[in-house]
Amino acid sequence: MVQETASPVINFDPSQRRFFEDDARVQVVNFHRQKGKDFTAAAKAVNDAIVSGHNWYITSVTQRQADATHKKCAKFVDAFKMLLNIQGKAAMEEREYEEWDDQFKHLFTRTARKIILPGGAEIEALPGKNPDTLAGLTGNVIFTEFGLFPNGGYEHWRTIFPLSTRGFQVIVISTPRGKKHKFYELCTDHESYSYHFCPLSKSVAEDGFLLTDNKGKPCTIEQFKRLYRDDAGYAREYECQFTGDLDALIPWAQLLSSQDGEIPARMLVVTNGSGWKDGFLEAIAKLPPGRIEWGWDVARRSDLSSLWGNLAGRDGKKRLAVLIIMKSCEFALQRHIITRAMNTRGGNVGCGDATGLGMDSNETLAALFPDRWEPVTFSVKTKSELGSAGRTAFMDGTQKLPAFMSDEQWKPVATDLYSLQCEPSGDAADKRLILSETENELLPDSHCDVAYSGLLSLRAGAMLGGKRGVLPEPEMEVPADWEVGS
Fold first, then answer.
1. Using an 8 Å Cβ cutoff, are 293 and 438 in contact?
2. pTM summary value
3. Sheet containing strand 247-248, strands side by side
4. Which domains does the chain have, with CATH numbers?
5. Is the N or C terminus of the chain more exposed, i.e. has fewer CB atoms within 10 Å?
């Protein structure tokens, strides 16, 4: 009954109608932008929840995106309330209807992220960044913008799909983001999954989709594409193509050629403060003369905090000499370590990620080391600058790494650099690189944190190094615990 009364009020085009009426166990939706995929999914959720009494959960990589789809559900609930109220009024005498109307209004309850419908079914928006927070629930699932889920979406799929074990539906919605993702697998397995595909060309030709300008006047696809000025982006966002796969910022061949055995590089891993010894950094005196250029990628709990130290040699090369990886370490300890690192030699310089959690610590370091420490706020622009400088440094042989193919402890570092992916902005007039972090199987806690610390080290040398020169090294006894913690 609900579907029949809904159709005159909710206008679906043919592609949306096919999706709305689909009752397959897993439905995969690859529609172009602004096609109404979340709109249709919201209608499906409300309709099914009223008819079947089953719960629905909406999850996305951010709470904001899940809430946006949930708000669409709330609008459909209002539409269903209106329809049911009209039906009730038509079937009853006026006096009976007034009593029924008072009771009817209490059958629908709503909070910011949960709707409770007659019969007890719930529709809830949940954050999807940590899939473990969703484990234990049971019901139908809507993944929205699934292509943006981190680490290829595999961990979320593995954890969240079991919510549907008792025969519930799973709806996966996204625009393509590359072939190294679970969404690509779902879209290409038409035997296992019900696939809904609608690019803009089909939408305009077959579904009556109308492109307009900002004044509501009709606009052709060619005019719209010319305004967009991004061929790769248009193919992905509007023609729903899995093209423009991200490429490694630094090809593996260049990483291999960067191996250098000139200096005895050292690594230290500190977890929850355990394993740190001040004497570790004193052994820098053993290194050849040169400035240490530090890069600090900041983290507190979920990711890795990484401090990368390049030795700026007299030959113009930057050699990774010291790497300190800090996992779940208090900021006080991290600042202590970096302060010691900056003081190991005269003229050391450094850059740190001052985005979010790192702002306070970087402001403190900049005050401690005027003209020697630069806080860097990550943005598309600054990440592009870091990526371009890093790519150039490896391409021209300036940046050198320890011999990671013969020393297994350094291979995760090279892999972290290789996991940093990029693509051009797509605009011929815009030379920026769009960086993206992919999974490092050898260092799963890192989201290219080590790689970014290396790029920040290069920035420190380029932006601040010229002011300092190469100063003489202080005399310092090499401690016996140099090998600790590797």
1. no
2. 0.53
3. 247-248, 420-424, 433-437
4. 2-237 (3.40.50.300), 247-468 (3.30.420.240)
5. N
